[in-house]
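Hi P.,

Sorry for the delay on this. The queue was packed all week, but I finally got your sequence through. Input first:
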Amino acid sequence: MNRGNLAEDPRVDRPSSSRYSRYGREGNALLYVSDREWKKVLAEEKAASARQSRKKSSAGVKSVHSAKRNVYAAEQTQGRDKGVSAPAAAFSKLEVGMHGRLFGVKENSAASASESERRKANGPVWRPEPAAGGKAASDLERRMEEASSVFGTVKMARPYLNAPNPLLESRNIRRAESRKVRQAESRKVRPAESWNIRPAESRNSRPAGPAADRRQPAKAERSQKTVSPVSLRKVLVASGVGLLTAGYIAAGVHFSDHFYPSTEFFGIKASGLTVAEVKRQVEKKVEGYQLQIKGRSSSSSSSGTGDRITADEIGMKYRDNGMIDRSMKQQYSVVWPVALLKTILVPNEEKLGTEYNSSLVDSTIRNLTLFDSSRVIEPKNAELKYTADGAVITKEVMGTRLDYDKTKAAIIHALNDGSTSIDLEKEGLYQNPEVYADDDALNEKVKALNQVLGANVTLGMGDQSVQINPRMTAQTFLSLDMDGNYYVDDSKVASYVVKLADRTDTVGRKRTFRTSLGTTVELEGGDYGWTLDADSTAQELEEALKEKKKEALEPVYFTTGLCRDKNDIGTTYVEIDLTNQHMWFYKNGSLVVDTPVVTGNPQKNNETPSGGVWSLKGKYRNATLKGEGYATPVDYWLPFNGGVGIHDLQKRYYFGGSVYNGAGSHGCINTPLAAVKLIYNGIGAGTPVVVYKDDSQEAVSQNTGMQDIRTITSYIEAQYGTVSDDADSEDETSRSTQSAEVQR
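Then the structure:
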């Protein structure tokens, strides 16, 4: 619809149509412009009506009202027939003004003047324009004219504003009908006509009359719009609600004496069971109850595997303490959904009534294999382990050591709860190590150590040899610098070698010696043994550690012996017993010769030095021994302590016994020729010579006494063989004459 051009109204400063003006000027009739003017017009109409009511009789007023009703009925009928309302048909144009108001405009220039005068007196009068060939419109005009002739100008209450918009109404009706058809097709529901529903019009029918004629079209139209099919969804919803209500009540009745799902007593699922049924199952469960105990397994032990405690072992019985009955009373079946949810979210924490013998429990637990000391493995921390190449980390040992008190408490708690199994590992009852293999500090230390470790040096010292491996290097020779790095500390190396010398040097050190007679003597003097050069040895060791050498390293010595073992006398030595005046010679553990001898004369202060070990300084043939007032030629000379040595003395006829007390030597060891030959051929320089006194009863009792040379020679030759005088030993060092000085 075209609204036309709007212009300013000169009277009220409101916009209106530019083609029409107020009150029929220029031959046009403009009915309404704005709300404000409409209120003003209403007030004027009310005042005019009041004035006319006072002038006219009540019969005239009734006639007017009847005429209005007839006019309205005719308008409604004509609107239904043509799709346009009766008031709209009375105008030649319809326009939309401000605020969406509908304007009806009737163009009639002939009646403009008289109409203006009448409007001033009685207000605006509406006259419907005759429709083409329309009888209803002519009747309407006729009745309006008759009413005007009798009572003056009839002022209507603007029925066209109260009626629906004729242009919009027809379009809305068509849209509603189209929407109903689409909804019926999409939902596959029969249209309203197929349902045997009586229309609202027939149900609300009334006797014909003026008022009924006027209201009947609107009612019929409303009935046509409100008729709708019975919703299947509503029926289903109503049915569902009924079923749910019935189910809710049935469930409440059921749960009044049956336990909810998720209910559990002593490991028994009580869902759907009555109190009596649960009690019977509990009694049966207690009779056959067993608590399985799972311990920590290890590679060397299966401690705890298969351990269990039965009801018979501890005397367990069921005692009804009313807990099951209380649980049933607390179900509150009236609000069973809430109570069921509470049962799921908050498990029952009450304890069943059971009883057992506490002393039997304690003895049963102590007899478990978990506490068998022969199977228990102690926990061990992860730690450094050194190999030939450096440091590594050994994995921790978890062990199987349990805390008895805590374990006992956990087992009793499981018995009280009715648990069928308990995992001691999960309960945290084992004593665990404190340091694990993934410890950061431990791994950092290993990394730093491996920067300097790697040497593997062996210091050769017989049975006292020292293996300097990465472990010993890290523990003995390394230090940390300011940056936290490890290095070989030369001061620690030197200190270690000094301590090593003090521990292994043997010269002048005390020794315990087991004699040929089976006794034991203490030795301390002499010059035989080993003396380490600490400075030179420390320097060589430090170099080997820094260069990470893997080799044997021979220490540097000032003095050496034949054997580097802790017992450095070894298995090759000469043994001289001054008390029993006897001598033995062993080579590589075998006895070469034993013979009686004559040692220094103590009566003349020529006693042979004793109580120590001396090193043989050499061996000589055909030497002349000289001293103060004497010169004695000998065939064999074996010195070991200054001028004191072993030699033959062919002019001596008796050996052994107590000969030395009155006719002893100047300090040397006078030996039979047959014996000295054997010693000379088997001995070498550096051989230890042990000289001691043994006054023990065991040693003295074995004294062979004094023997003559013939008996001695026969015995030696028979036992050990003979040696030719002309045989030269490869160990002979000199044939020159030697001078011997007797010790005091």
